[in-house]
Amino acid sequence: MAGLAVLAGLAVPLAVATPAAAQNGTFAYVANLNDDTVSVIDAATNTVVDTITVGDTPLNVAVSPDGSRVYVTNFADDTVSVIDTATNTVIDTIPVGDGPVGVAIGTVTERIPTKLKLRLEKKKGKGKGKDVVDALGDGGRKGLVLKAKLTAEGEPLEGQPIEFTTDSVELCTGTTDSKGKATCKVPCKQDSETCYTATFAGDDTYEPSTATFCRFNDTSDQLSEPADPEGLSAIPNQALTSAART
Protein backbone atom coordinates (compact mmCIF):
# COMPACT_ATOMS: atom_id res chain seq x y z
CA MET A 1 0.00 0.00 0.00
CA ALA A 2 1.28 3.44 -0.84
CA GLY A 3 2.25 5.66 2.09
CA LEU A 4 0.61 8.97 2.87
CA ALA A 5 2.08 12.43 3.10
CA VAL A 6 0.50 15.57 4.51
CA LEU A 7 0.38 18.36 1.94
CA ALA A 8 -0.83 21.56 3.59
CA GLY A 9 -3.23 19.61 5.79
CA LEU A 10 -4.28 17.09 3.12
CA ALA A 11 -3.36 13.39 3.23
CA VAL A 12 -2.28 12.38 -0.28
CA PRO A 13 -0.63 9.18 -1.61
CA LEU A 14 3.15 9.19 -1.90
CA ALA A 15 3.38 8.65 -5.65
CA VAL A 16 5.98 11.31 -6.36
CA ALA A 17 8.46 13.25 -4.27
CA THR A 18 6.71 16.52 -5.15
CA PRO A 19 3.29 16.94 -6.78
CA ALA A 20 3.38 18.53 -10.19
CA ALA A 21 1.95 22.02 -10.52
CA ALA A 22 0.17 23.42 -13.57
CA GLN A 23 -1.42 26.69 -14.66
CA ASN A 24 1.04 28.97 -12.88
CA GLY A 25 0.91 26.92 -9.69
CA THR A 26 -2.89 27.19 -9.32
CA PHE A 27 -3.36 23.43 -9.26
CA ALA A 28 -1.31 20.46 -8.10
CA TYR A 29 -1.53 17.05 -9.80
CA VAL A 30 -0.92 13.99 -7.62
CA ALA A 31 -0.71 10.41 -8.89
CA ASN A 32 -2.68 7.89 -6.83
CA LEU A 33 -0.87 4.61 -7.31
CA ASN A 34 -3.54 2.22 -5.99
CA ASP A 35 -6.53 4.13 -7.35
CA ASP A 36 -5.26 4.50 -10.93
CA THR A 37 -6.22 8.15 -10.75
CA VAL A 38 -4.72 11.62 -10.53
CA SER A 39 -6.07 14.07 -7.96
CA VAL A 40 -6.28 17.73 -8.92
CA ILE A 41 -5.76 20.02 -5.94
CA ASP A 42 -6.67 23.68 -5.90
CA ALA A 43 -3.60 25.27 -4.33
CA ALA A 44 -5.58 28.30 -3.18
CA THR A 45 -8.06 26.29 -1.08
CA ASN A 46 -6.07 23.05 -0.59
CA THR A 47 -9.03 20.98 -1.73
CA VAL A 48 -9.36 18.23 -4.34
CA VAL A 49 -11.39 19.71 -7.17
CA ASP A 50 -11.17 16.86 -9.67
CA THR A 51 -10.13 13.21 -9.94
CA ILE A 52 -8.89 11.95 -13.31
CA THR A 53 -8.83 8.26 -14.25
CA VAL A 54 -5.54 7.27 -15.88
CA GLY A 55 -3.70 4.01 -16.56
CA ASP A 56 -2.80 1.15 -14.21
CA THR A 57 -0.47 2.08 -11.33
CA PRO A 58 0.40 5.72 -12.06
CA LEU A 59 3.73 6.70 -10.53
CA ASN A 60 5.11 10.05 -11.66
CA VAL A 61 3.80 13.23 -13.22
CA ALA A 62 5.37 16.09 -15.15
CA VAL A 63 3.91 19.32 -16.48
CA SER A 64 4.68 20.94 -19.83
CA PRO A 65 6.42 24.34 -19.65
CA ASP A 66 3.25 26.20 -20.65
CA GLY A 67 1.15 24.30 -18.09
CA SER A 68 -1.27 23.00 -20.70
CA ARG A 69 -0.39 19.30 -20.40
CA VAL A 70 0.33 16.84 -17.59
CA TYR A 71 2.12 13.58 -18.37
CA VAL A 72 1.59 10.55 -16.10
CA THR A 73 3.62 7.33 -16.20
CA ASN A 74 1.45 4.22 -15.77
CA PHE A 75 3.82 1.55 -14.46
CA ALA A 76 1.63 -1.55 -14.92
CA ASP A 77 0.16 -0.40 -18.24
CA ASP A 78 3.47 0.48 -19.91
CA THR A 79 1.87 3.74 -21.00
CA VAL A 80 1.90 7.49 -20.39
CA SER A 81 -1.38 9.37 -19.98
CA VAL A 82 -1.58 12.91 -21.36
CA ILE A 83 -3.95 15.21 -19.46
CA ASP A 84 -5.34 18.47 -20.84
CA THR A 85 -5.24 20.84 -17.86
CA ALA A 86 -7.97 23.07 -19.34
CA THR A 87 -10.51 20.25 -19.12
CA ASN A 88 -8.72 17.83 -16.74
CA THR A 89 -9.33 14.95 -19.10
CA VAL A 90 -7.03 12.35 -20.64
CA ILE A 91 -6.62 13.28 -24.29
CA ASP A 92 -4.04 10.68 -25.26
CA THR A 93 -2.39 7.48 -24.02
CA ILE A 94 1.13 6.79 -25.27
CA PRO A 95 2.54 3.23 -25.29
CA VAL A 96 6.13 3.17 -23.97
CA GLY A 97 8.60 0.61 -22.63
CA ASP A 98 8.16 -1.92 -19.85
CA GLY A 99 7.38 -0.45 -16.42
CA PRO A 100 7.76 3.31 -16.98
CA VAL A 101 8.70 5.17 -13.81
CA GLY A 102 10.24 8.60 -14.37
CA VAL A 103 9.09 11.31 -16.71
CA ALA A 104 10.76 14.62 -17.51
CA ILE A 105 10.11 17.46 -19.90
CA GLY A 106 12.85 19.59 -21.39
CA THR A 107 13.67 21.73 -24.38
CA VAL A 108 15.67 20.06 -27.13
CA THR A 109 18.15 22.47 -28.70
CA GLU A 110 19.13 21.72 -32.29
CA ARG A 111 22.89 21.43 -32.59
CA ILE A 112 24.93 22.90 -35.42
CA PRO A 113 26.21 20.33 -37.97
CA THR A 114 29.98 20.04 -38.37
CA LYS A 115 32.25 18.78 -41.13
CA LEU A 116 35.58 17.11 -40.56
CA LYS A 117 38.19 16.61 -43.30
CA LEU A 118 41.24 14.41 -42.93
CA ARG A 119 44.40 14.18 -45.00
CA LEU A 120 47.68 12.35 -44.67
CA GLU A 121 51.13 13.68 -45.42
CA LYS A 122 54.30 11.66 -45.58
CA LYS A 123 57.27 13.53 -44.17
CA LYS A 124 60.86 13.23 -45.26
CA GLY A 125 63.71 15.28 -43.82
CA LYS A 126 66.12 17.33 -45.93
CA GLY A 127 69.14 16.49 -43.79
CA LYS A 128 70.60 13.37 -42.27
CA GLY A 129 70.84 11.69 -38.93
CA LYS A 130 69.55 12.75 -35.55
CA ASP A 131 68.77 16.35 -36.52
CA VAL A 132 66.25 15.17 -39.08
CA VAL A 133 64.53 12.83 -36.62
CA ASP A 134 64.36 15.58 -34.00
CA ALA A 135 62.89 18.02 -36.49
CA LEU A 136 60.11 15.60 -37.40
CA GLY A 137 59.29 14.66 -33.81
CA ASP A 138 57.58 11.35 -33.03
CA GLY A 139 56.99 10.65 -36.70
CA GLY A 140 60.68 10.16 -37.35
CA ARG A 141 62.38 10.43 -40.71
CA LYS A 142 59.62 8.57 -42.55
CA GLY A 143 56.78 9.38 -40.21
CA LEU A 144 53.26 10.31 -41.25
CA VAL A 145 51.35 13.39 -40.23
CA LEU A 146 47.56 13.37 -40.03
CA LYS A 147 45.93 16.73 -40.59
CA ALA A 148 42.28 17.32 -39.76
CA LYS A 149 40.15 20.40 -40.38
CA LEU A 150 36.91 21.03 -38.49
CA THR A 151 34.28 23.47 -39.74
CA ALA A 152 30.70 24.41 -38.94
CA GLU A 153 28.58 26.20 -41.50
CA GLY A 154 31.74 26.78 -43.53
CA GLU A 155 33.61 28.47 -40.67
CA PRO A 156 36.59 26.93 -38.80
CA LEU A 157 36.04 25.80 -35.21
CA GLU A 158 38.84 26.73 -32.84
CA GLY A 159 39.74 25.05 -29.55
CA GLN A 160 37.95 21.74 -30.22
CA PRO A 161 39.51 18.34 -29.40
CA ILE A 162 40.11 15.95 -32.31
CA GLU A 163 40.94 12.32 -31.56
CA PHE A 164 43.09 10.43 -34.08
CA THR A 165 42.83 6.64 -34.10
CA THR A 166 43.65 3.59 -36.17
CA ASP A 167 41.90 0.25 -35.67
CA SER A 168 40.29 1.68 -32.53
CA VAL A 169 43.73 2.42 -31.07
CA GLU A 170 44.22 6.03 -30.02
CA LEU A 171 47.22 7.67 -31.66
CA CYS A 172 46.90 11.14 -30.18
CA THR A 173 44.51 14.00 -29.51
CA GLY A 174 44.95 17.43 -31.01
CA THR A 175 43.18 20.75 -30.50
CA THR A 176 42.02 22.80 -33.46
CA ASP A 177 43.71 26.15 -34.04
CA SER A 178 42.19 29.39 -35.33
CA LYS A 179 41.92 27.79 -38.78
CA GLY A 180 40.11 24.76 -37.40
CA LYS A 181 43.14 22.53 -37.96
CA ALA A 182 44.60 19.83 -35.72
CA THR A 183 47.56 17.53 -36.42
CA CYS A 184 48.87 14.20 -35.22
CA LYS A 185 52.36 12.81 -35.85
CA VAL A 186 52.22 9.07 -36.45
CA PRO A 187 55.24 6.81 -35.75
CA CYS A 188 56.69 5.25 -38.89
CA LYS A 189 56.13 1.73 -37.56
CA GLN A 190 52.65 1.39 -39.00
CA ASP A 191 51.29 -1.25 -41.38
CA SER A 192 51.45 -0.25 -45.02
CA GLU A 193 47.70 -0.88 -45.28
CA THR A 194 46.14 1.25 -42.57
CA CYS A 195 43.02 3.31 -42.05
CA TYR A 196 43.23 6.45 -39.92
CA THR A 197 40.23 8.15 -38.37
CA ALA A 198 39.75 11.64 -36.96
CA THR A 199 36.79 12.15 -34.62
CA PHE A 200 35.12 15.21 -33.15
CA ALA A 201 32.86 14.04 -30.32
CA GLY A 202 30.62 17.11 -30.44
CA ASP A 203 29.14 19.04 -27.54
CA ASP A 204 25.96 20.85 -26.53
CA THR A 205 26.35 23.30 -29.42
CA TYR A 206 27.92 21.27 -32.24
CA GLU A 207 27.10 17.86 -33.69
CA PRO A 208 29.82 15.19 -33.81
CA SER A 209 31.62 14.35 -37.03
CA THR A 210 34.25 11.90 -38.24
CA ALA A 211 36.50 11.31 -41.24
CA THR A 212 38.50 8.23 -42.22
CA PHE A 213 41.47 7.99 -44.56
CA CYS A 214 42.90 4.66 -45.80
CA ARG A 215 46.21 3.99 -47.53
CA PHE A 216 47.33 0.78 -49.20
CA ASN A 217 50.57 -0.75 -50.53
CA ASP A 218 53.05 1.81 -49.20
CA THR A 219 56.02 1.56 -51.55
CA SER A 220 57.14 5.17 -51.91
CA ASP A 221 59.19 7.54 -49.79
CA GLN A 222 58.30 10.56 -51.92
CA LEU A 223 56.52 13.61 -50.62
CA SER A 224 53.41 15.04 -52.17
CA GLU A 225 51.27 18.11 -51.82
CA PRO A 226 47.51 17.94 -51.16
CA ALA A 227 45.75 17.38 -54.47
CA ASP A 228 42.13 16.65 -53.56
CA PRO A 229 39.88 19.73 -53.39
CA GLU A 230 38.26 18.18 -50.32
CA GLY A 231 41.59 18.34 -48.53
CA LEU A 232 42.76 14.75 -49.00
CA SER A 233 46.34 14.37 -50.24
CA ALA A 234 47.72 11.71 -52.52
CA ILE A 235 51.10 10.00 -52.23
CA PRO A 236 52.70 8.62 -55.41
CA ASN A 237 52.51 4.85 -55.95
CA GLN A 238 49.84 4.51 -53.27
CA ALA A 239 46.13 3.96 -53.43
CA LEU A 240 44.68 6.46 -50.97
CA THR A 241 40.98 6.29 -50.25
CA SER A 242 38.67 8.42 -48.18
CA ALA A 243 36.70 5.63 -46.54
CA ALA A 244 34.27 7.90 -44.75
CA ARG A 245 33.78 11.60 -44.67
CA THR A 246 31.26 13.54 -42.62
Known CATH architecture of the largest domain: Sandwich
Share of helix, binned: under 10%
What structural class do the secondary elements suggest?
A: mainly beta
Q: How many extended strands? A: 19
Helix count from the secondary structure assignment: 1
Distance between the termini: 55 Å
Task: Give an overview of the whole structure.
The protein is mainly beta and 246 residues long. It has 2 domains: 4-95, Thrombin, subunit H (Beta Barrel), CATH 2.40.10.480; 115-245, Sandwich (Immunoglobulin-like). Helices cover 3% and strands 47% of the residues. It has one helix at residues 130-136, and strands at 4-7, 10-13, 20-22, 27-32, 37-42, 47-53, 58-63, 69-74, 79-84, 89-95, 115-122, 144-152, 155-156, 161-166, 169-175, 181-186, 194-200, 209-216, 239-245. Strands 15-14-17-18-19 form a 5-stranded antiparallel sheet, with no helix packed on it. A 4-stranded antiparallel sheet has the order 3-4-5-6, with no helix packed on it. It has a 4-stranded antiparallel sheet with strand order 7-8-9-10, with no helix packed on it. Mean pLDDT is 76; it is low at 1-18, 127-141 and 218-246.
